[in-house]
Design brief:
Layout: E1 2-4, H1 7-14, E2 21-25, H2 31-44, E3 47-51, H3 71-81, E4 85-87, H4 91-94, H5 113-116, H6 120-135, E5 139-143, H7 147-159, E6 165-169, H8 189-194, H9 197-210, H10 216-228, E7 233-241, E8 257-265, E9 268-276, H11 278-283
Helix pairs in contact: 6-7, 9-10
């Protein structure tokens, strides 16, 4: 496994890989990330990963300073997963003096996370566009847990004609079904138990959908009821949204829907989602 830290080193190393799959990360890796690396390796023959905590996607009130970091551990895990190339740039490499450009993706960034975290997706789109230009991957893997991010990056890639296939990997979960997240380490013992209300709420929506309910308001109500039963849960939103635009639905049609939510448990903000109906077949490959 080759580890490079500068743009010049990356461009030299990239020449050694005729086909390359890419997994952008902010580090503090877990099995969700590693499953994407293994999938990229299996499909493309070689996998690259970036580790960069991107400051432009954090709001002033977000947890940039306390975001968990452990590069030595991450590199060990990546080597065990069969990663071929790791890019660990500094902030100056990505945003040199005088950097003044940002990418804005309209529409799909407006609801959900975009409404709660203004500017977040501009930061995500800008850094991923830079990484695509630097790494020059043939395909890039992202996790379903960040569903809106996946939708935004698919739109950006399509609109700007990046020659990169976007592939979404299914959410990887803990044995008790909590979605794996680098932020889970923030949860105290009682908060960790309380956090299971997210998957209970999503499964309530799934059960309602499977029972034939198509009213999005009713499905959102099933989710909300599960969250209200947990005293430590403070929801930012619950959503039953169009799988393409992520706009809220009145009725779920044959295309299915994305059921998603963001919930604060103590000081930790968690997100999760499930794909209902045909949306699952469309999103996951």
């Amino acid at each position: 496994m080759r580890v490079v830290s500068t743009v010049a080193e990356l461009r030299t190393a990239r020449r050694d890989f005729p086909r390359l799959g890419f997994v952008p990360t902010m580090g503090f890796l877990h099995e969700g990330h590693l499953s994407l690396v293994r999938a990229a390796k299996a499909r493309m023959g070689a996998a690259a990963c970036s580790i960069f905590v991107n400051p432009t996607q954090f709001a002033p009130t977000d947890d940039l300073a306390r975001y968990p970091r452990d590069l030595e551990r991450d590199l060990r895990l990546l080597e065990e997963a069969g990663c071929d190339l790791v890019f660990t740039p500094s902030e100056a490499d990505i945003y040199p003096d005088g950097f003044a450009s940002r990418i804005e993706v309209d529409g799909v960034t407006a609801p959900l996370e975009g409404a709660v975290r203004p500017g977040h997706f501009s930061g995500v789109a800008t850094v991923v566009a830079k990484l695509f230009n630097l790494v020059q991957p043939d395909a890039a893997w992202f996790g379903q847990k960040d569903a809106q991010q996946c939708a935004v990056l698919r739109r950006m890639t399509r609109d700007l004609d990046f020659p990169v296939e976007i592939i979404v990997g299914e959410t990887v979960r803990e044995p008790d079904s909590l979605a794996m997240s680098s932020r889970n380490v923030y949860l105290a013992a009682d908060e960790r138990v309380a956090a299971l209300c997210l998957i209970r709420a999503l499964r309530a929506a799934q059960a309602g959908f499977d029972a034939g309910y198509r009213s999005a308001e009713l499905l959102r109500g099933l989710m909300q009821a599960e969250l209200e039963a947990e005293p430590l849960a403070r929801p930012d939103y619950v959503s039953i949204a169009d799988p393409d635009t992520l706009a809220e639905l009145d009725t779920v049609d044959e295309r299915g829907a994305v059921a998603s939510l963001a919930v604060r448990i103590g000081q930790t903000r968690l997100i999760d989602n499930l794909l209902l109906g045909e949306a699952r077949q469309k999103w996951l490959r």
